[in-house]
């Protein structure tokens, strides 16, 4: 049932109209598919949940709605409504909690029963209505951790591990950490992180009140350096020493450091009367400290609470360490990609622009590339290519293929098919097995003012020609076998005159391919959007096409090269 939001389908307005359930008098209704995603919603469900249909369709119902009675994320092992979804049976109950769109909790009675979806799959119909109790009284929430059983604590730790390791983004990990500890353990959460430069930054100060989490930006920001000899709890936690129970009295004496001064201000500003401070430890080093505090909840933290916070902090530290490592690798990869992709030449009369987007869940580098350079005889070479894969190996292969193609194309004047045939021979003999597709085009400006394109295609999606009036056609001639197969082949050239003010779009398959749609659908979508943007400035055309055309479930990088032909002089 656990499906990340970024894999959820993109629901159109038509989808929303079709996926309406009839209203019942007092109950809301929605349907989930076999993975737990909401696929149909009634108007009454919208009203009860105070969430528009657009925020419901395609989302995982458990992650979006189900909460514990104190607003905490509910472990799947404790969710009674999930059991009939797994077993395929029917069940009903009451006393479960949904989080509404305004952040408040709603206590519901419910019934779940299997149903058949239009796709033929088995889903489940969920009926629910609000029961009188709308939220736990503050005095009950104050004793939340005291009443937690050992099984509940283990379930919370398991949910912490599963939730925090699901993301490799530091900001998202911090947001999930806050959601896990508030309001179940306290009503304040503070995260201080050690920076890569050796400093300290207060990254998060979050407060839970009235069913909502708010962030105190005024209390966040850079911090003084960590004093190495200070016995104060936060300083010790940032050095990785130990977790500590803290109260305002801890910081009432004369401050021994700048961090102690800021801690005094934190307790004054938040009104916390009790807190736990625990180190966030990564694999090799301490990454920061977690503070969970109580101001509105009257109960003070106990040693058992401190041990639980320390366990959560240990898991959070590993998740943050992994996220930081990923972000460092991503920065290195992005720098590498910027250096691998070339600068476009300046060609009188031509307008050119290039765009590149990495694979969403890869290492930010890949095998897609574009290129353009002026040939010795004055013609302009245009290249779009794709080495199989989207990782560092693909990027390394791309760099070799790109450089070889430049060398062969600049050696002497030859048709594109001859150059690509020579490149194919070289790629098949590279030390590392490499497969690639590419289009090599030669753009000439003739004496009569006509711009003529000669090209050959080695297994790549065909270029798209968009005329000024919006007419489009794919240049499908000159197609041949991809590079690196080692199979002898006869390559051909094709040629076409490019109309004035037309736009040539060369792209990689990540722009049009989708596991849920045919290639023809992707090409038709590209053609339709490109036609609507026929007169858009070239400088922004590539990015807009990627934003609008690239399928939401695409998992490949995209390179795109656009060329605008000038108008003929009168």
Automatic annotation (TrEMBL):
Keyword Hydrolase included in the entry's annotation: yes
Alphabetical list of InterPro entries matching this protein: Bact_Sigma-Reg, GAF, GAF-like_dom_sf, PAS, PAS-like_dom_sf, PAS_fold, PPM-type-like_dom_sf, PPM-type_phosphatase-like_dom
Transmembrane spans: none
Annotated keywords: Hydrolase
All copies of domain PAS, residue ranges: 14-66
SMART domains hit by this protein: GAF (SM00065), PAS (SM00091), PP2C_SIG (SM00331)
Keyword Hydrolase: yes
UniProt xrefs under PROSITE patterns: PAS (PS50112)
SUPFAM superfamilies the UniProt entry points to: GAF domain-like (SSF55781), PP2C-like (SSF81606), PYP-like sensor domain (PAS domain) (SSF55785)
Name this protein carries in UniProt: PAS domain S-box-containing protein
Organism encoding this protein: Nonomuraea roseoviolacea subsp. carminata
């Amino acid at each position: 049932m656990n499906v990340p939001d970024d894999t959820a389908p993109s629901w159109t307005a038509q989808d929303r109209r079709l996926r309406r359930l009839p209203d019942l008098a007092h109950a809301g209704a929605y349907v989930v598919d076999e993975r737990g995603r909401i696929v149909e919603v009634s108007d009454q469900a919208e009203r009860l949940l105070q969430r528009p249909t657009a925020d419901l369709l395609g989302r995982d119902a458990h992650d979006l709605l189900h909460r514990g009675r104190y607003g905490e994320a509910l472990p799947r092992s404790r969710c009674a409504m999930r059991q009939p979804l797994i077993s395929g049976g029917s069940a009903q109950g009451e006393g479960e909690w949904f989080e509404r769109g305004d952040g408040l909790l709603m206590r519901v009675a419910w019934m779940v029963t299997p149903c058949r979806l239009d796709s033929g799959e088995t889903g489940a119909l969920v009926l629910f209505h609000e029961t009188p109790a709308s939220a736990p009284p503050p005095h009950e929430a104050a004793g939340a951790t005291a009443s937690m059983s050992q099984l509940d604590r283990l379930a919370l730790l398991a949910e912490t591990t599963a939730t925090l390791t699901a993301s490799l983004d530091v900001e998202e990990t911090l947001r999930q950490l806050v959601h896990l500890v508030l309001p179940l353990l306290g009503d304040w959460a503070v995260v201080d992180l050690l920076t890569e430069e050796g400093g300290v930054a207060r990254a998060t100060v979050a407060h839970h009140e009235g069913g909502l989490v708010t962030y105190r930006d005024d209390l966040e920001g850079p911090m003084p350096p960590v004093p190495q000899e200070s016995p104060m709890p936060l300083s010790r936690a940032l050095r990785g020493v130990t977790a500590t129970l803290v109260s305002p009295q801890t910081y009432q004496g004369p401050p021994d450091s700048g961090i102690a001064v800021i801690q005094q201000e934190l307790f004054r500003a938040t009104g916390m009367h009790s807190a736990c401070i625990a180190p966030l430890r990564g694999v090799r080093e301490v990454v920061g400290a977690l503070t969970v505090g109580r101001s509105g909840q009257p109960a003070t933290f106990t040693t058992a609470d401190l041990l639980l916070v320390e366990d959560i902090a240990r898991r959070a530290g590993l998740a943050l360490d992994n996220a930081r490592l990923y972000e460092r690798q991503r920065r290195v990869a992005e720098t590498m990609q910027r250096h691998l992709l070339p600068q476009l030449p300046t060609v009188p009369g031509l307008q050119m622009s290039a765009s590149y987007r990495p694979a969403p869940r890869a290492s930010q580098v890949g095998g897609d590339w574009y290129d353009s350079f002026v040939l010795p005889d004055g013609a302009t070479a245009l290249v779009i290519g794709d080495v199989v894969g989207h990782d560092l190996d693909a990027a390394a292969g791309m760099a070799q293929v790109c450089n070889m193609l430049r060398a062969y194309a600049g050696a002497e004047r030859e048709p594109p098919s001859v150059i690509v045939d020579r490149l194919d021979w070289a790629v098949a003999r590279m030390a590392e097995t490499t497969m690639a597709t590419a289009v090599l085009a030669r753009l000439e400006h003739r004496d009569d003012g006509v711009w003529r394109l000669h090209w050959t295609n080695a297994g790549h999606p065909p270029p798209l020609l968009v005329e000024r009036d919006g007419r489009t056609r794919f240049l499908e001639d000159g197609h041949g076998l991809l590079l690196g197969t080692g199979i002898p082949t006869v390559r051909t050239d094709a040629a076409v005159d490019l109309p004035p003010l037309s736009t040539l779009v060369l792209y990689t398959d990540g722009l049009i391919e989708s596991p849920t749609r045919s290639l023809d659908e992707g090409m038709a979508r590209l053609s339709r959007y490109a036609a609507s943007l026929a007169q858009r400035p070239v400088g922004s055309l590539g990015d807009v096409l990627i934003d609008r055309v690239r399928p939401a479930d695409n998992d490949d990088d995209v390179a795109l090269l656009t060329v605008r032909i000038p108008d003929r002089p009168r």
